[in-house]
Amino acid sequence: MCELNNFDEYYRIAEELVLYAGKIIEDGINSRKNIKSKGIDWDLVTEYDRKIEDKLIKQLLIQFPSHKFIGEETVAKEGCLPQLTNDPTWIIDPIDGTTNFVHRFPHTCISLALLVNKKVEIGIIYNPLMGQFFSARRHCGAFLNGKSIKTSDMRDISQSLVAMEPWLAKDPQYLASVYSRMHALVQGTHGIRSLGTAALTLCYVAMGAVEAYHIEGIDAWDVAAGKLIIEEAGGVVIDTDGGELDLMTPKVIAACNQQIAQQLVDLIKKADCEILHKNLN
Ligand code: IPD
Ligand code: CA
């Protein structure tokens, strides 16, 4: 049941702040940016990522001084991932799809989630460039620009459109497995898509634009808000091995329903086995 409680106030303030942060993305998209890499040359950050994260944390702290924060850029600066506790915790990705933002590819967003007792209670993902404001509160449904959204009712992976991201193949350790999984998806589905923003792609599962999404090597801030938005739209988000998702080290299969999720788990397992056999022979 959707209860009226403190979450109304948390949601109201979060929505206001995310809309404001959207203006920073709009201002920045066509501006000259100070682009840096975070250790690996293709993991980019700009002054806009930091500006948005600082603004969100500062304003949320004024309203909720006892709340905790896990923000992508703060973690990058401090070099360590804080432990998730039962305390109210805001998980922030100030710009998800920073590479898109740098290249002016208009799929980029702010992702903000509130967790209490380690459960996501509020999820907001906003792409100001496409005017898409996705939101969810636990047990209250999922919305795009205030209108209720639902996942696709497809039950057959071979008839599905599936999103995945091959960038992990840049690391030689994962190259064979990424290409094998990609090959299995190309052969076993209607088609694959790759957007370069995990948070928004999760929303595309929620709104029924793709049936499923698979990604690994990402972080809690890429997934927290989108997980709730998908679940509230009728879908599921599980671990690649078919078990429960660990939000702090996510290996993601997001799907419109359990059947598609399971078929994707099986397809990936088969692809991984094929590499193993090739390596043994
Ligand atoms: C990235 C995006 C991308 C995913 C990367 C993330 P960022 O987030 O979500 O889709 O494949 O792993 O790091 O760096 O743009 O916030
Ligand atoms: Ca980011």
UniProtKB/TrEMBL annotation:
Any GO MF annotation of the entry: inositol monophosphate 1-phosphatase activity
Residues that bind Mg(2+) 1: 72, 95-96, 222
Keyword list, A-Z: Hydrolase, Magnesium, Metal-binding
InterPro entries linked to this entry: IMPase (IPR033942), Inositol_monoP_metal-BS (IPR020583), Inositol_monoPase_Li-sen (IPR020552), Inositol_monophosphatase-like (IPR000760), Inositol_monophosphatase_CS (IPR020550)
Listed EC numbers: 3.1.3.25
Catalyzed reactions per annotation: a myo-inositol phosphate + H2O = myo-inositol + phosphate
GO BP term, example: phosphatidylinositol phosphate biosynthetic process
Pathway: Polyol metabolism; myo-inositol biosynthesis; myo-inositol from D-glucose 6-phosphate: step 2/2
Cofactor: Mg(2+)
Binding-site list for Mg(2+) 2: 93
Stored CDD domains: IMPase
Enzyme category, top tier: hydrolase
PROSITE patterns: IMP_1, IMP_2
UniProt similarity note: Belongs to the inositol monophosphatase superfamily.
PANTHER family referenced in this protein's UniProt entry, alphabetically: INOSITOL MONOPHOSPHATASE, INOSITOL-1-MONOPHOSPHATASE
Protein's recorded name: Inositol-1-monophosphatase
Source species of the chain: Atta cephalotes
Classification of source organism: Eukaryota, Metazoa, Ecdysozoa, Arthropoda, Hexapoda
Gene assigned in the entry: 105623000
